Amino acid sequence: MSNKDWRIGIDVGGTNTDAVVLDENLNLISAVKSPTTEDVMSGIENAMEAVLAGEGVDRSRIGYAMLGTTHCTNAIVERKRLDRVAVIRIGAPATRAIKPMIDWPAELRTAISDQWFLVGGGHEFDGREIAPLDEDELRRIANQVKGECDSVAITSVFSPVDASHETRAAAIMREALGDDFPISISSEIGSVSLLERENATILNAALVDVAKTTSESFIAALAGEDITDAEVYLCQNDGTLMSAEYAMRYPILTIACGPTNSIRGASFLTGLKDAVVVDVGGTTTDLGVLTHGFPRESMLAVEIGGVRTNFRMPDIISIGLGGGSIVRQHEDGTVTVGPDSVGYRVTKEALCFGGHTLTATDIVVAAGAAEGVGDPALVADLDPELVKKARAVMTEMVENCVDRMKTSAGDIDVILVGGGSILVPSELEGVARVLKPNNFGEANAVGSAISQVSGQIERVFSLDKLGRAETLEVAKGLATEEAIKAGADPDSIQIVEVEDVPLAYLPGNATRVRVKAVGDLKI
Amino acid sequence: MRTIGKREVEDMAVGAAVLASGGGGDPYIGKLMALQAIDEYGPFQMISLDELPDDAFVCASHMLGAPTVLVEKVPNGMEGVGAVDALEKRLGRKFDAIMPLEAGGLNSLLPFQVAAAKGVPIVDCDGMGRAFPELRHVTWTLFDIPACPAVVCDEKGDVVTVEAVDNAWAERLSRNAAITTGGSVFMADYAMTGAQAKKASIPGTSTYCEQIGRAIREAHEQNVDPLPVILDLLGAFELFRGKLDDVARRTEGGFVRGYAHFAGIDDYAGRECELRFQNEHLLAKSGDEVLCSAPDLIAVLDIETALPITTEGMKYGARGVVIGIPVHEHWRSERGLEIAGPRYFGYDIDFVPVEERVVESANEQ
């Protein structure tokens, strides 16, 4: 096609905003790291300006722009800029025993919703109706909430099996509220487990405006750099992309894309598909596992801003070790590192930068293991015994975590990324190789730029009808269709995950099947 | 009589997950229902078995079916009450109190809401002292107390009264009713007198759950390892520490059977441990050596948090402490082992109490 085949990737982290430009063969042309700002957007603008000013960047060739951002997470955590949501649950007479949002933090509930409704309808696990959908009640609700809310969240019992009541309810709401009124339906957002899926749907509905503002400002920032006809994408937490338009409908899927981008970027930069990725930042070190080129997902219920959801998040463990971690020697001679940190102020407060706080960075500089960082003369007086002990503590912290993340006893490769990766030595116990890719500092932004697109289905199937093998084939076909719909190149699609979990204590071979298909962006 | 508030309910939910022995369903939904019931009816009233008059009339309350359905089709809240009402009508007598059927998992907390809605106290006891797969796996069966008449009630208000020839048929018929009505129902059954309840129930199990949960919570608050406290409280034994490196499951007759394999770490490095489960953990082995078997309880606790890992939640790389908890002596009787011993679940070994196995194992090494 045209020569609009370069991409710009941006990742907003807690400390830094990273940006990269990749050419048509995914070669890294330019990379920058710039501080994250309080309003987030000016930090994005700064990083974008700097990366586009890099040598060899031909901005006229940029056809794709990818953004991984913390906007949505911040909005939930800070309880700011959230939409008022009318919450509709379809399932009566079932589900009365637990009200929507019952165990939410009170402030967040107050910030998002004071209107919820329980409507007759919903399905059984095998697709039968619990009750017919109460359409009259939905019309009444639509008129009641008109002008009283910014967004609607609809959750129907067993909608992952049959979503028809949700889609019908959304249509009824649109008749009264208008075609463009934001409506989030749960079957498009979460999997089986009513309360967790409902929670995620409500949060999604509350984030519509935040996502819209973010996308629009990102597009405006690109325009400010004369990039006006690029395809704009936001990163999801599974390492795949969604269009800006899609992101406005499913903003919740952008939550926690940072760790995913870092793991995927590390994979790309090293060419490894299986490894432990250790991302050392200013305050914490995050460890994730790369399996078949994707982050391993956590099985545990994930809380977002104190709300329980059933999102699949990357399985990450975080420890209080970073470049700014404060190092202390105690009276009994022991040395501790962190968990408190001077964070992004490390370049002012660390001894080797002329500050007054002994940090993890000072230790590696004093040990001569961090060429080009700070001024070694400023830490030359540190007690060598202290330096040795502190390094040993830091190494052991990382080794223990790597061991926790491993799935077999054999040695595994470790990929080191992040600005603080100088803290970790090049040899670790239980590790085959420690790889530190070039541009390790910008793995996040690279991860965002190379993201793929995916399609996923999760449903309860009765294996008695088709048998297991055929059921899984049906599910794979459905997931592939979803991926193509999302913009994947059909030739590149791979099934990356198949999971079937039988429903316990129930005959009839009812099984929950989840399949995810992933492909390269069709360029 | 004791008052059970929200804090106690939160603690009980954690303890119930430990006593679930890996199965029983996540107590989360039961906890939320109980919390909403406290908002509606006030704190729960709980009496001990000793406080229950001999001539009192009590029944068990529980859900039956798939926990996976219950977490999606959340109850209406009147199913349990509807079942108890129908059983009272059938027997022509009101119940003075409600008993949990099962101390482990989801069913540990569901009856609290039912008792509150009925305006009667809950009895601090149950019929299992743990979680088991079937309705008839209760100590009441050992004392020839029939489950029937048993009542099944769904969220729509459908009521099925089961008059079965024995507790095994009560199980089969009720489970079929559960499937027909959507996979998750509430039941009222095992109507009995206070005197029968005292003789045949396992006493104090709700309080026990609460103590376990509190121990874990307090250990977290004080940043100390909760495991020693838990072992002490349960009279339990650490059997193994390892990293899960293989897990397989398959469905068979409505139950999920499978195994999990752990590679030893710390003091157990170089050894291995295999767990067999059918919804709940039933057998723990290290090589040829049996470490613990049903009806004794086997639980896997997360090494860091001491929170229990369910058979459904087990995944590669999880690090767990396998513990063995001695079951109540009712289950160790000849009849108890007949319906819940290793052979009943298809493992051709003799039952040896976990405390004896631990001593044997120590002597050998």
UniProtKB/TrEMBL annotation, chain A:
SUPFAM superfamilies the record matches: Actin-like ATPase domain
Positions of the Hydantoinase/oxoprolinase N-terminal domain: 7-176
Domain of life: Bacteria
Coiled coil: none
InterPro entries found in the cross-reference section: ATPase_NBD, Hydant_A_N, Hydantoinase_A, Oxoprolinase-like
Domain Hydantoinase A/oxoprolinase: start-end pairs: 197-368
GO molecular function: hydrolase activity
PANTHER family: 5-OXOPROLINASE RELATED, HYDANTOINASE_OXOPROLINASE
The protein's name: Hydantoinase subunit beta
Organism of derivation: Slackia isoflavoniconvertens
Upper lineage: Bacteria, Bacillati, Actinomycetota, Coriobacteriia, Eggerthellales
UniProtKB/TrEMBL annotation, chain B:
Pfam family, one: S-Me-THD_C
Species assigned in the record: Slackia isoflavoniconvertens
SUPFAM superfamilies attached to this UniProt entry: CV3147-like
Annotated S-Me-THD-like C-terminal domain residues: 166-354
Family annotation (InterPro entries): S-Me-THD-like_C, S-Me-THD_C_sf, S-Me-THD_N, S-Me-THD_N_sf
S-Me-THD N-terminal domain mapped to chain residues: 8-163
The protein's name: DUF917 domain-containing protein
